[in-house]
Amino acid sequence: MKKFSFTINGNQYDVEIKDYEDDVAHIDVNGTSYDVEVHREVKKSKTPTLVRPEVPSTRKDSKIKKKISTTSSAIKSPLPGNVISIFVKEGDTVSKGQKLLTYEAMKMENEVQSTKDGTVKAIKVAPGDSIVEGQDLIEIG
Question: What angle (nearest 5°) sits at the alpha carbon of residue 112, between those of residues 108 and 116?
């Protein structure tokens, strides 16, 4: 694995680390093999761990599926992510700039807003769904 040269009290030692398992290192010192127990202090991480609750999926399959629509009135996903919540339902009247849904992408919550005035024709996703870039989310007529 690794080779080292040490000088201790004027004596030179050529050390080769052969194997390292758990806390035992198998080494060669000037041609003689030794099993050495390594004592080390376990350092605690100073970086906090962010724990977020998992968004429950309401659908049986949570695999990413790209749904392609031929209508031009569909609101599309700008980035891949996971749908967190939907603020409208089918039949609702919406205005341009109104918040339609929230999704998580790149560890940030993002809003999707209506691009025009109209009525919600179809909602093509549900909270907990994984979405891909360009996927139809909500259809407005």
Answer: 160
